[in-house]
Amino acid sequence: MDMEYFVIYDVMTGKDVTRSSGPPGTAQVQYLGDDRAIITVDPLWYEQKEPIAALPLEAAQAALWGHAKTIRDSLVFAGAMTSRGAVETTPYSITMLSVKRALASSANPDTEMSFTMADNSVVTMFADDLVEMIDEALAWIDSIHEYGRTLRQRIYAAETTLDAIKVDVFRGWPIIVPVAAPVPEEEPSAG
Fold first, then answer.
1. CATH architecture for segment(s) 56-160
2. Half-sphere exposure of 123 (CA within 13 A, CB side)
3. What does the pLDDT look like over 24-45, one tens digit per residue?
């Protein structure tokens, strides 16, 4: 049976908290708390019971960048909240957003266009409004990629394993903030 080996450590100090193993994917579902991080390691290195700071720098960098890419992709493809509601951002949806944006950009601004939202509701809006909504979704995706690029630079700029594992790839990512629906004003009661 395939196994995955990992070490949970304190991000600030780089000190090991616990070591464990399990089927592939186990590391991804560990609760880390506010000051912990996790790194998957080679089974042979795991068996040596060395502190995480003794992990070869290249192995630490590759593992951290692997975690960062997994998080990046899960956020990119989870959807984007826009001022008009949630928009799907699967790989296919991102392509279709670009196509729809090109069509809306070349249309008369007063042209009404339909768009299917993430919840499968169909909304109709003017071409300019559709362009604005798609730009919001694409900006969300770009912000995630930008954060990932920053993490990659920091991980690979590290000169020691301890410096690398202090790059927290689990926190700081852009988050989806739901846009609250307007609350209708209460009418004064007659009386």
1. Orthogonal Bundle (1.10)
2. 13
3. 888 887 878 788 888 888 888 8
